Each structure stands twice: as C-alpha cells, then as structure tokens.
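Q: Structure tokens for this one, please.
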Amino acid sequence: MLDDVHAHSGAVYLQAPDEPVLEMAVKAGLPRAFTAPWERVGLSAPLPVAQALRELRLIWVNGEEQMAARFPRIAVVLPYPFALAALPVATPGTVYGAIYVTWPGSRPPELAEWEREHLTAACERLAWRLERVDAGNLPLGPDPGRLTTRRTAIAGGTAGSAEAARMAARLPHGLCALDLHGSISYMNPAAAEMLGVPAGALIGSPLWAAVPWLNDPMYEDRYRAALISGQVTSFVALRPPGDWLSFRVYPGSDGLSVRIARARPLAGTGHTAGMPARGTARLVTISHLLNLATALTETVGVQDVVKLVADQIAPAVGCKALVILGSHGGRLHVLGHRGYPDEYVIERWHGVPLSEQIPGTHVLTTGVPAFFDSWQQLERLYPKRQGTQDGMASWAFLPLIASGRPVGTCVLAYAEPHPFPADERAVLTSLCGLIAQALERALLYDAKQQLAQGLQAALLPHSLPSLPGIEAAARYLPATLGMEIGGDFYDLVPTGVRAAAVLGDVQGHNVTAAGLMGQIRTAVRAYTTVGQPPAAVMRSTNRLLIDLGVELFASCVYLRLDPGPGRVVMARAGHPPPLLRRPDGQVRVLDLAGGPLLGIEAEASYPTSEFALPPGSVLALYTDGLIESPGVDIEDALAELGELLALYGDEPLEALADQLVRDTATAVERPDDVALLLLRAVRPV
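A: Here is the predicted structure, written as tokens:
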C-alpha cells in the first residue's frame, strides 16, 4: 500500500474484541516509538483512524494547519509538516479496524483520485483477507513493526562502497549515517573528532544517547522532524566548554545523513547555554506527556480520567493494573480501576480509614510517593497491611496533588518485579501531576452533577398516583449542555373522582429555573387541591410568578380529567399543543385557545377548551425540548411525533413513552431538557 501511493509510513489498527478500542497491529515505515501514545485508541477518540472507523469513510489531513485545527492531540505531539489519510478496513458485514498512511509535507495538498482508489482497494483486500482469517479461526498476533528496506545502490558495488568510505574519511566535514531508529551506522573520523567520542563507541547507538552533551529532547526532535516531514532540518549545539557545532540532517527512505561542521558562537550566549541536563527524559516520554496533557483537557468526569489513564498511561509505563483512590469522610474510596480480574482485591481498599497504615492512605495523606520493587519490600514496610496478595509483583503509589493538596492516589501495579530508577520515578511523578489536575476538575464536575440530579429528582414526582380510569407514564431527560438541570416539570394530582394533570417549562437550565419550577409545581398543586377551576389555576399561578419578581417566564398546559363521562377541560399558557390519539389510531393536534406565557402580564386571562377522552384514547403532553432541534422545522417535528404516537399508541404506556423519547434520549447533545406525560383513558374495573 505504501509503495503504491509513495507514502513513507503507515499502520494497521484492529478493533479489540471485547471493548471499544482500536489496537495497533502493524506499524511500517517509521519506528513504532513515534506513535507510542496511540498504541491503543478509543473508538470515540478525536483521532483520524477512529473517525474513519466511526464514519466508514476516508479522512484526509493535508498538513500542519489542518492537523492542528482538526486533531490537536496529534499536532501537539508531532508538530511537523506531514499529510495523513485514514481509512476503515471493513467488509459489508463486518468492521475490522482502520489504517492510516502518511506522506512528507512536501507532497501536493490534495489527495489525487488515483491515490484514493489505490488506498480504498488495498483496504478492501485487507478486509477480505481478515474475513477469511476470521472464518478459519486463525490467530492474529502483534507485529513488531516493519521499516522500509529500499536502498540506494552505490556505483561500483563493494569496491565503490569502500572508495566512498575513503573519500568521506578525507573530507574536513563530519559525516555520519543514521538508520530509521536514529542509531549511527557510519561515521567518518572528522565527525568522531568533532564529537569528542571514539567512532567505535558511537556505532549502533543513537547520536543523542551516545554523546552526553547531545542528550536533549530538542536535538532528537530535529531527527524526528526530518524523518516525518521528509525535509532537511538543522540545529546548533554547544560542545563543552565552548565549541559550537552545526548539524544538518538529510532524510531518506532508508535512513538519514548528518553533516557536522564547526559553527560561530551564538551572540549573547554564555558557556552554559544550550547545555541539557544529564538524564533528560527521552522524547517518547515527552510525547506521552504532551498527548496526555492534551487528552486530559477533554475529560469530564472521574471515570473519563480513569479510562484515559488505563488506555494511554498504563501501556506506556508497562504496568498490568491500576487503581485511582480518593477520600471521603475520612475514609479511602476507590474511584476507578482497571486490570484486576478479582474485584475483591479492589473492594478491600474501599472504606478503609485514612488512619490505617497502608500505602494507599499514607501516600494520600502525606503527598509522598512510594515505590516497591517486590512483595517482600512492601510486606516489610507495611507488615499490618490489610488483605492478601493481589497477584502483582511490584507497585508504584503516586500522590495526585492539585492546588497544593492531595486529591487522590494513583496505584500502578506490575506483574513482574520492576525496579524504579530515579529518572522513571521523576517521569511517573510528572504524569501524576497532570492526572491530579484533571481528577480535581472531574471530582468537582461529578459533585456538581450529583447535586443537580438530586435537586431535579427532589423537585419532580417520585411516582405517579394510580387513578381510576386513567393510566399514566412520564419521562424526564435533562439537557446535556450546562448543569444538566432545567425547569421542565410534570405532575398528576388526584381530586376525588377527578384528577388534574399539569406539564410546564420554566425558562432556563440552571438552579434558578429548577427552584422556580418547584415553586410553580407546588402552587399549581395547592390551587388544584382547594378546588380552583383550570382557568383560575392558570391566573393564580401567573400572578404568583409576577409577584416573585424573578423575570423568568414559564409555559404550561393544565388538564382537568373527568374519566367517568370521559371529558377533559384544558387551559394553556403559551405551551406547545398536546396530541390526542383516538381509539381508531387517528392523531389530532389540540391547538385550542390559550393565553400568554406565565409571568408576562399580570391581568392575563386563560380561556379553557373541553374535549372528549373516550376509553382507549391517549393524551401526550410534552415540552418543546422533545420536538425542537437545530435545522428541523417545528411543524415537521410535530408531525413526526404524531406519526410515532399513531404507530405505537396501542403498546403499553411505558413502552410508548420509551418510543417517543428514544431519539432524544440517545442524542449526544441535547440543548434543552425534555418532559413527557402520557395519559390513557381506560374503562374502570
């Protein structure tokens, strides 16, 4: 595939069998470390391969600007000019995964039609081959990654190669060759002299690892930039104590050539300028940090943070399992975990007092990390630790510190004995600093959501009363934007042989709207209980809303139900018209007379209308969130709701309610909350 479209790298992802994740199966053309942050990709992730699979179409990104605008996670980690195409790998009946291929940034900005055809045909062939493998129950194992092997021939064969080496040895400039992994495969004497390291000590090692003063991610970044973009890159570095050297990197399909020359000192730079610290983290670790930092900004709740750490950090650091711990009421709480097959191992931590001497509580209360290379070391330091062995061999207990205080503990567990050198401890601590900030936001978000949901639940009826001659079912869906709390409400009030049904919508989606909704619902119930007729209930509620002075409006529909003779009296205040499904299946829109919104005019009147409700009829009362959506005409949406009511109106009322809110309930974004109240007239037993 790469050869056909002249691409220089690519990868195949296969969908994991039991989870919504794509796993990298084959990587070709470039070292696998370049894409280490994306070894596992969630199907919902904002990444090209995931989008290609979700939408089952080709995704094309023509360069740096598009990558930054559409896929910032990739642009942050790989800020180089390159183009990318991602395609799904699927047959008409089965989706197997996705692929991506990349080109140097110098290619044309548009994908040619012949390139699209080659890529699509290759993915179709791969999908059919995977289908045959699947049908034969043949195993699919991971691939270590393939690098291109195209070589440029040297004139004269072996003799020419030797002469080329002698010629390079005579040149005053330093020359060296790097393979695709960045390891040195050739170096002339001038290069070894300039670097101050014998050539024999350099061959086979990455340039920035073999030369101490080049051990800086900035220099490795230039190698990556050249290899991914296909463009020449350069940098200047200081060889202690005061010699400046310039490096120019020329990329090719099978490696890179580096020209080293002496350079003039940079103006205004002291002797220590440009000197990287020893032991600086490798760039692949920085890639993970950048990718994690970008991804963590997209997390919302605590479980989002746990999933992100499990999918991206755990594979990178090589741990088998992880646990995120928090505290509440002076006790340890398990916020989330992955990788432990035995749930009891996790449950024994939940509810442990923070005064208990175990690693999880000690790290959380002190903010000091703890590393245990073996079970024996853990047992020696914490002999009174609760529980039994968890099947792991070594652990890292890392404090999650945000805003200067511990908010939790991240426990990384390894299946094999694992030493923790100083540089790895520093990297893990840095990772947990990012995780802690996201966890703090997530804890606040979850607390806000619990408060909002609890308030909403307290303001709405916990259940609907049983009424003779009337069946009832209700649904409430909060808006997904903002606080997920709103002013929609419903109620069903028995009044002897009669009953009253009310459904309304207070303007806004916040605590103020919810609080006002509770007052209106209580007022309507009180006015109904004292025997006011529908028009008087609306007038009284309107005056109450104006007297409260909250400057919010409300719509409302109020019904007095008399199931004996099968009659209904309705009063409306600016509310969408109810739908009536007759026993013969015909649906009527009850767009009858009504008054203005509540809270606008103090002396407003609310005329009533009366209609029949014979046994078998169904009344649907709803708020505008059920029928309003961007780009959809309100009349068309109302007609569609009527068609659903006609089609499913004979089903049990609970099933009918689910059908009417099905599309709204599954919507990713719901700008308005939704209330639905269904009433069916039945013959009294």
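A few notes: The chain has a mean pLDDT of 83. The radius of gyration is 34 Å.
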